[in-house]
Amino acid sequence: MESQVKEIIARVLNVPLERITDELSSGDIPEWDSVGNLAIISTIEQELELEFPLEDLFDLTSVRSLVEEVDKLTNA
Fold it and tell me: What residues have CB less than 8 Å from 72, skipping those under 6 apart?
């Protein structure tokens, strides 16, 4: 799942996959602003057929947090 999430982030932000590291967060690169974050979340939900809990959306602002949340939802 981690590689899928990173690929989605890179595609949505239109940046090379190599720029998507575990430590990367919203605001670290110009492409990842608040609109980009919403696009990432909605694309992950659509492509992986998941629904993030509403109360967690504000915490999903880094590659690591997105990967962890996807893992949690797919292993639940």
Answer: none
pTM as predicted:
0.92
pLDDT tens digits for range 18-76? 999 999 999 999 999 999 999 999 999 999 999 999 999 999 999 999 999 999 999 86
DSSP 26-53: TTSSTT-SHHHHHHHHHHHHHHHT----
What sign for the dihedral angle of Cα 44, 59, 27, 39?
positive
CB atoms within 10 A of CB 35: 9
Map out the domains of the chain with their CATH numbers: 2-75 (1.10.1200.10)
